[in-house]
Amino acid sequence: MYNINDLTTFMVKTITEESYPIIICGICDKNKRQESLDNLLELKKIKFNGLKDPFFIDYRLAEKVKTISTDYIKALGVSIVIGGVHQSTGGIIGSPKSNITSSDKDIELLDGGLVVVSIPGGPGFIVKSDEITAKKIYRESMLKDKSVINRVLSILSNIIKYDVNLGLIITDGCGPNSRGSAVTIENDRICMRIL
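and the corresponding structure tokens:
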């Protein structure tokens, strides 16, 4: 079990070699923040070769993350914008050590007291809390009539409401009504990037 003081968040917004905007964020060992960023910047080299298949985009992201991640990266989220995609995709979240699967309202417990909530169409989030708190945040944030960005703000509001001091939120970057974004939460510091 990790103490919250042993973990930190990181986030970077950049462009891939194929000119796709991408945000990479995560939770890692506190003394490995820069190494985590450096390691995951390898995602800039990811190639899609013009393919627009929603499954392929997420699978390719997850596959690349799995091959470049190290043990000190505990959890992460990635959002990428690829134009011309007609279904929500381009956002992944979870442990880089987990098997690659599509989200289907999953709640997954990770090492260190981290809980991943992944929702098709997003947003997904990771919090350092118990499963009950993560479910409360989910239930109170995911009203059907809210836009994705309003859901992000609701998740953030509920993370604060339930005194969760470490977490991240990620949205899909591709498809109709998608706007790639990421939020990291660490104690009293909140950082947000939008693609």
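(Above: one complete record from the training split.) The longest strand covers residues 7-15.
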